[in-house]
Amino acid sequence: MKIIPALCLTLLSASVAALEVLPPPAAWHGASEKLVAEAGSRWITPAERSGFTTSPDYAATLQYLRALAGASDKISVHIFGKSYQGRDLVYALVRKPGGNKPVVMIQAGIHSGEIDGKDAGLMLLRDIAFGGRDDLLDQVDLVFIPILNVDGHEDASPLGRPSQRGPQIKGSRTNAQGLDLNRDYARLQSPEIAAVVKLLQRYDPALYIDVHVSDGTDYQYDVTYTFAGWGTYARSQATAQWLMGTYSDEVSAALSQQGHLPAIYPSWINESAPDQGLRISAEGPRYSTGYGDFIGVPTVLVENHTMKPYKRRVLGTYVLLEQSILTVGRERARIAAAKAEDRAARPAQLMVRWERDPLPLRTSTFKGYRYEAYQSLASGARELRWAGEPQDVSLPVYGVRSTLDVSLPQAWWISAGQQSLIAALRAHGIAMETTQTPRTVALETTRMASGKERGGARSLQQITLPAGSVRIPAAQPYHLLAAALLEAESDDSFLAHGLFDQALASEWRMPKHLLAPLADQMMASNPTLRAEFLDAVGKDAALAANPAARLAWWEARSDYAPRARWLYPVYRELR
Fold this sequence. Notes:
3 domains, about 35% helix, globular
């Protein structure tokens, strides 16, 4: 989007006004400042040239990246897809010849206003190519995506992310479809995430790094990071323990040595009342970190602090990326073993829904700033403002508890007629077997009122499936992802994401004036059902007092019931 100069001045003025309400930044100098190229250097990046006040647009970013590639035999630039508006999605492959080395995959700009990773990555690639840091490629290959949300990156404005210090003009959070790309990993509704998932399948990285900038309150930390579930709730436990241990220790030490203040990314119970504490949670595969957890790829979400100056954030990102490469290179065998262990695991159950546990897991010391309340004339209420005074506080940290676990089957079956569902699973790289002839199998079916329901009545039936139907075995590397996408009760299932919203039962439910006589006939002619019914109403006062529920009890046991319920097209082969 091009902004005319007069309008640009107006927007910049408004942007400055927005920054004036932020707490003043604390003075900072760190050893990582030595990473900045000298003025006039041939390979100085656009952000460095501006003194980290601006970040290059899409065209200037690709121009710099391709110039690096043209001058270095270690960097090549590749297109891996198209954005919703037709722009090239580009990554740089950075490697030395020879060997089968693990890959570190670095992704910037999934939320394009949070673009620290792009400018840090360009500096790092420059130093690998021309700054004597090609030793970083001795044990590791790099895949670097400078901008994932390229359409949002070009929908830039000085009014973007008013709580974030720099760069001056920032892209949007969503893509051109209006989607938050870091909520699309399960559904793959956007071309950008569909393309990056294919890239994950192609390179199967030893480490996947997704660089963001935080929202929220003020605190002392400048570089924070997180993993799915923080070990406690991770589905891939072996990789989670490596991330929580060796990786965290080494990245934190490197950042501290370079003058940064790292920490676990603080997710608040209530941003308007920080003293209520912090939370950690399980994740589903809709997020980058959750997706990595479900497919057994160690994944790091970097969340630089939004109120820290851009230069400090970019330099901290550089240090984190550099140390990540060094750690992966030395730990390559251990990472491979952890990934193999997680993918070979065969859990009998999967937690698919959860809630915050009212009892804290622990208390932690948090480096915040003192805040005070004031009376806002605008809101008419007491509001928070940060006083700028460093303050260490002890905060409770809350976890979650399961509200629903599902038992996992031996396999899932899908009829040949559900080609869109089968294609969606294949897009995720989920393994399946295709039948060559019709098959009759004893399978558990699920019936529900419509495709908008979340689970229903299950029963075991003999199901005949035509040739071309698929069996998805639970015994496969992506078993957890298959379960999250296919189990009807899962919050990240295709059902929950609306793939079957238009699905209805074959027939309308029987009207009450016909259902009541039918129920009376069944009650008179079937002594066994009559006894079950009388027992049920005797034990359940709510059922006994509800005429509609009483009739529904009989309807569910009639021969007409199956046609009045929608058959979920995923069948379960029980263990």
